[in-house]
């Protein structure tokens, strides 16, 4: 299991209000952030995850490296959608947070969501990629929403920073699958997804309600859909159990009736035998 310190950088610029991803780019990003956190912690209990927002007026660290999901959730709720994308400075602040990790044995990784146009030039991005590579920081990029604008720049950035396939770029256009579902089967998490959090782990182990990690206030549609799905599954299992119990009861009842008929036939036979002996 890889021992890592991971900073997740979320995009909270104005573009994240767009509703082309359920229920918005911002909400889809937050659900994916929760999934990534759970996956990283489950894959190795000594892993730590931090959170940073790089929209608004500039990068803001929402949570330093931690294993406590409550701190991540608290940081998420304090974030507001505003301003523009500050990709370059966001990466640098995230790298600085990783540099100050307590466990220096942990490998350094940044997972950055990009859902708005990147303003940096190719030359500026090349300089940033070389700097991060020199400092042994791996960067995974989740490119969505403005992929037609950003893909070429991000592909070049990824080709420079990628060192023995330690950094990945995943481009996700709008589609039927939720953002976190695509990420779960992408190279970003594929190596750890089965050792870490499955979807049922993410949703609270299939228990009642909407799960431990889905905040209904943050993504009400997803939470409602999950709750209804779980309730339907529970009702189906109860129906099957009731039908099985009914069949077992009928089988027992039929078996008892057959025994009674055998006893009656035996008694009639004994009576006939006694009558024959008396007549003789």
Question: What's the arrangement of secondary structure elements?
Answer:
Layout: E1 4-10, H1 25-43, E2 48-53, E3 60-66, H2 69-77, H3 87-99, E4 107-114, H4 122-134, E5 137-144, H5 147-161, E6 169-172, H6 179-184, H7 190-193, H8 199-202, H9 220-279
Helix pairs in contact: 1-2, 3-4, 4-5
Word description of this protein:
By secondary structure, the chain is α/β, with parallel strands linked by helices. The protein has a single domain (4-202), classed as Rossmann fold (3-Layer(aba) Sandwich). Helix content is 51%, strand content 14%. It is built from nine helices and six strands; from the N terminus they run E-H-E-E-H-H-E-H-E-H-E-H-H-H-H. A six-stranded mixed beta sheet has the order 3-2-1-4-5-6, sandwiched between helices. Strand 1 (4-10), helix 1 and strand 2 form a beta-alpha-beta unit. Helix 1 (25-43) packs antiparallel against helix 2, helix 3 (87-99) packs parallel to helix 4 (122-134) and helix 4 packs parallel to helix 5. The longest helix has 60 residues, at 220-279. It starts with a strand and ends with a helix. Mean pLDDT is 83; it is low at 192-218. Residues 5-188 form the VWFA domain.
């Amino acid at each position: 299991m890889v021992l890592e310190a991971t900073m997740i950088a979320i995009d909270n610029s104005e573009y994240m209000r767009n509703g082309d991803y359920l229920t918005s780019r911002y909400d889809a990003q937050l659900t994916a952030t929760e999934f990534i956190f759970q996956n990283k912690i489950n894959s190795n209990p000594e892993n730590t995850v931090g959170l940073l927002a790089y929209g608004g007026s500039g990068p803001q660290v929402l949570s330093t490296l931690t294993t406590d999901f409550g701190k991540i959730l608290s940081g998420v709720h304090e974030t507001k959608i505003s301003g523009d994308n500050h990709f370059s400075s966001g990466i640098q602040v995230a790298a600085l947070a990783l540099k100050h990790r307590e466990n220096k044995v942990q490998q350094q990784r940044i997972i950055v969501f990009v859902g708005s146009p990147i303003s940096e030039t190719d030359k500026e991005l090349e300089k940033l990629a070389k700097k991060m590579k020199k400092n042994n920081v791996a960067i995974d990029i989740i490119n969505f929403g403005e992929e037609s604008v950003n893909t070429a720049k991000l592909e070049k950035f990824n080709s420079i920073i990628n060192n023995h396939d330690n950094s990945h770029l995943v481009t996700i256009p709008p589609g039927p699958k939720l953002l976190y579902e695509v990420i779960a089967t992408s190279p970003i998490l594929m190596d750890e997804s089965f050792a870490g959090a499955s979807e049922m782990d993410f949703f609270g182990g299939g228990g009642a309600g909407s799960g431990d990690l889905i905040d209904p206030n943050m993504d009400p549609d997803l939470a409602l859909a999950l709750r209804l799905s779980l309730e339907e599954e529970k009702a189906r299992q109860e129906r099957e159990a009731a039908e099985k119990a009914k069949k077992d009861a009928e089988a027992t009842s039929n078996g008892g009736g057959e025994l009674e008929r055998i006893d009656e036939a035996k008694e009639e036979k004994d009576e006939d035998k006694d009558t024959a002996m008396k007549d003789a």
